[in-house]
Amino acid sequence: MEEGAKLVEKERYQRLVGKLIYLSHTRPDIAYAVGVVSQFMHQPQIAHMEVVCRIMRYLKGTIDHGVLFKSNGHLKIQGYTDADWAGDKGDRRSTSGYFTLVGGNLVTWRSKKQKVVALSCAEAEFRGIAQGLTEILWIRKL
User: Fold this and answer.
1) Residue 109 pairs with which residues in a beta bridge?
2) Which of 47, 48, 55 has the alpha carbon at shortest distance from 14?
3) Structural domain boundaries in the chain
4) What are phi and psi of 68, to 5 degrees?
5) Of the candidates 52, 50, 45, 48, which has an alpha carbon nearest to the alpha carbon of residue 4?
């Protein structure tokens, strides 16, 4: 948020971001960017609308992208995690993310700001690993 920046039409912004949130279920490549712009739903500024328009232009240029599921002859579960440390300039909280593959196919993914401020990059990474591991254990139980 910039101090004194012009606001845009709130309802239009919310409609666009809502549609992007729905679309991000099948387009994980936009999930993080959509998560960021969705944080400004109550007071969207011109800069935020420009980012939404940039995401729309990206989608227009990548119409043929998506998630492909194919048989690979196994059901091996793989998970990958990552986290940044104090990546949000506003509240210094870290963002962690993970994705899991079953049989070589992407089945779950998530990127979320951590609930607490991590005191080190190791703490931020461990919190991210814990989230990813929880997801893998849930998939194993299925």
Assistant:
1) 99
2) 48
3) 10-61, 77-141
4) -105, 130
5) 45
Confidence of residue 58 (pLDDT cuts 50, 70, 90): very high
DSSP state of 28: G
- pLDDT in the model for residue 136: 96
Q: For position 5, what pLDDT does the model report?
A: 85
User: For the chain, what is the radius of gyration of the CA atoms?
Assistant: 17
Distance of CA 110 to the CA centre of its chain: 6
3-state secondary structure 39-101: HHCCCCEHHHHHHHHHHHHHHHHCCCCCCCCCCCCCCCEEEEEEECCCCCCCCCCCEEEEEEE
Give CA angle at 41 (36, 43), nearest 5°: 110
**Are 103 and 76 a contacting pair, CB within 8 Å?**
yes
